[in-house]
Amino acid sequence: MKMTPQQFLDWESKCITLLAMSGAGKTTLSNKLPKDKWFHYSGDYRIGTKYLEEPILDNIKQQAMGVPFLRDLLKSDSIYICSNITVENLSPVSTFLGKIGDPGKGGLSLDEFKRRQALHHQAEVAAMKDVPDFIHKAEDIYGYRHFINDAGGSVCELDCPEVIEALAEHTLIVYIKIPPTLEQTIIERAKKDPKPLYYRPEFVDEKLAQFMAERGYQSTDQIAPDDFVSWVFPELFRARVPRYEAIAAQYGYTLDADEVAGIQSEDDFIQLIAQAIARQSH
């Protein structure tokens, strides 16, 4: 969706999609907006509570079945297991995605890893295609005036043009660009605390082959689960940036993460986007 700064300011029911790498401040920004005016749609939350709910629970149950005490209780229907996913706590989704590596250390075989990645891809596509319906629900059922889509960091990896086109049709796409001063901080943070992520299949094949050749591994079962995730994150960061930029150039607008960090109010947010529209209009 493209518009002039004045058209954006005059837009009575603003619908915005935020795109960015994890750590750029999407969720923090969303939480700064008045909760009585803005419906906060989290793509990752929708994935975990709707489209991956059953696989996530199956994964947890499989782990629990390895503990005799819990296995007996589960088999006799004496207990049940559920995940407590919130917008702020998406650990069950990350845990399901998992990491390639030694099964004895909690790693996944390459086949199982790719199976879960494929399920996540399907779930993320579906969650983003749900955005138009939720825009209507937010207003018609709950009475929210505005809508913000806190999209997952991997939306740029989906290679699904109809998703981006649908988001651009129904929302104003805003890409939060991480400046060089923050880039290394985010990379170092990710390397110290490696979290499971979604990757394009071609990216996994290329980078895993490179990683294994460098380390002399013959099998993914030899990899410590955290090692590949830590090693590959800088490569992932660099690969995603041009994808985000291409989406913003064609369909939306760009904000600097340093600018976003300074937002203190809804008015700050709206004025900053209007300024970004003006910048890119010249």
Could you explain how this protein is built, in words?
This protein is an alpha/beta fold and 282 residues long. It has a single domain (5-281), classed as 3-Layer(aba) Sandwich (Rossmann fold), CATH 3.40.50. It has 14 helices and five strands. The protein has a five-stranded parallel beta sheet, sandwiched between helices. The longest helix has 27 residues, at 225-251.
Strand order of the largest sheet: 2-3-1-4-5
CATH architecture: 3-Layer(aba) Sandwich
Q: Pick out the low-confidence regions.
A: none
Order of helices and strands: HEHEHHHHHHEHEHHHEHH
Q: Whole-Å distance between the termini?
A: 17 Å
What structural category characterises the helix and strand content? alpha/beta
Query: Which range best describes the helical content: under 10%, 10-25%, 25-40%, 40-55%, 55-70% or over 70%?
Result: 55-70%
Mean pLDDT: 94
Relative strand content:
5-15%
Put simply, the count of helices is 14
Looking at CATH, the homologous superfamily is P-loop containing nucleotide triphosphate hydrolases
Describe the main β-sheet briefly.
5 strands, parallel
- Tell me the number of structural domains: 1
Give me the Rg, rounded.
20 Å
Task: Say how many strands there are.
Answer: 5
Query: What kind of assembly state do the chains in view correspond to?
Result: single chain
**Backbone shape:** globular
Q: What is the top-level CATH class? A: Alpha Beta
